[in-house]
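Blinded run. Sample ID left blank on purpose so nobody reads anything into the name before looking at the predicted structure. Input follows.
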Amino acid sequence: MRFSFALLLLPLFACAPFRQRGPEAQAPPSSFVRSTAELRSTRMIQVRAGLARADAMKAVADALEVRYVVEVADANAGFTMTAWRASAGRGGVPDLRYRTRIVARFLGDDWRRLQLRSEANWARGDEWEIGYDVAQLDTASRELRERLSTKP
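Blinded prediction complete.
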């Protein structure tokens, strides 16, 4: 009798690793910062003198395309935006509850400053929490600074 009862419970315990457990399964990544303040989610990058607009746009697109899919690029406006990207979860499966993207925009008539902004959303139930991903922002700003800023 006990053996047959154990056989009935076996499928229940076999599927247990696939269930999400604990608060860490319901929390956004540690790099996510809840914020609607645009100042915190923005980095400014100085563009070196003598860099033509077309070359600057190409440098931004090339740098972002290494890690992201560039969805919008307007060379006349100096605007580039990546597509939303779901982060990789456990086992390499995308976690559709967390998405990020990067927005880059040249400022001023001379395009000597690049505004880089990170956007991130965390789905909690039916609503999205708005913020930015600090690790993504730091990585993207470092890579763009290497390509666009004054070389020593």
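Unblinding after everyone has recorded impressions. Helices lie at 2-14, 53-65, 134-148.
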